[in-house]
Amino acid sequence: MLLKSRPFGQRYAFVVAAVTFICLLIAAGLRAAPGVLLVPWTQSLGWSRGVISLAIAIGIFLYGLTGPFAAALMLSLGIRRVLIGALALMSAATLASYFMTAPWQLMLTWGVLSGLASGCVAMTLGATIVNRWFVAHRGLVMGLLSASTSTGFLIFLPLFAYITTRAGWQPVVLLIAAAAAALIPLVFILLPERPADAGLVPYGTTYNTKPAAAALPQNALKNAFATLFRAARSRNFWLLFGTFFVCGLTTNGLVGTHLIALCADHGLGQVRGSSLLAAMGAFDIIGTTASGWLTDRYDSRKLLFIYYGIRGASLIYLPYSNFSFESLSFFSILYGLDWIATVPPTLKLTNQLFGDRDAPIIFGWIAAGHQLGAATAALGAGLIRQIEGQYLPAFVIAGAIAILAAAASLTIGRVRVKAAGMA
What we know:
The protein has one domain: MFS general substrate transporter like domains (Growth Hormone, Chain: A, Up-down Bundle), CATH 1.20.1250.20. Helices cover 75% and strands 0% of the residues. It is built from 15 helices and no strands. It has helices spanning 12-45, 49-76, 79-96, 103-119, 123-133, 138-167, 170-190, 220-232, 235-250, 255-265, 270-295, 300-317, 325-336, 343-388, 392-409. α2 crosses α8 (220-232) and α9 (235-250) runs antiparallel to α15 (392-409). The longest helix has 46 residues, at 343-388. The protein is globular and about 60 Å long.
């Protein structure tokens, strides 16, 4: 039984944010692992890069598609129940992959099951926590939670690369399974469902609003689709969906999945390639946190224009560089600073356009666009590499699309913030 009162007063919201950050961190490690394991799986299991890329793409796609349904489930069943179930499934699916001997088992464990589970421990979780526990500093807190992805890359990629070069890929999956399982009691003890359940009010206000779930259908599936149908009538929804599609295509789908393999094509080892991703993660912690601070103060559309423009230029630059220490360092700084920086301004625009009640679910659908883009790049870049023998066309195409997304960001309409119940 959870205690009714909590220490730190309103600041307990930051304890909730910290627990959420750790959960997102482990999910980011799970989602980052295939980028390190792609080559070892190819070598040890004898499966083609195209087959493995398909499994990764399935996982990424389901990771995104699960988001809106996870947000709806959190409204009807509660955050803690959904999160604990997701962590248990993440652990079980990853552990099961230790025993895989056929490609369909890779599709099931790292594709279907881990995709569904990690989709509940994703950006929609961060958006729901922020909308429920914070009124002040929402952009900054969302920036910090978004930085969990880059922090996961920073911590886990060099570790996973080090382990695989010395002991193979199997210890990596055991480590991920153990880490996910260890978080279950932490969530149960430290994560109240709502501020009111801990005798608190959201940080930055002096009152508790009526839970939005009371005004919404309790059927999570019906609620998710009903919210989508309302949002889909808005041109702004499709602009947010489309630009976030490009965000996924140019981040975890392309770079997160294929950068280490690209480095290997240019004679760089697993550890060095993963260290490049980790360095980008370090810069993204700075960039994404700063993006949250900027989002609280400046026009989100202009921020997105800058972020996508820089990202497109850096992706076009990379395959034409000489892959020297200097050129890779330049890329890691330029690209790393805005890797996940698009999340806080995208969430703010979603809240402004659709209100706090619907925003977590609508953001879940927008995040599904992100992962659809990521899945497209994960599979497409793998097939381009298999057919063309190089990654250059994939990176140039992705860079050009990012520049188009930069222009599209400026067309997202301005609206006044709607008064709505908190999620």
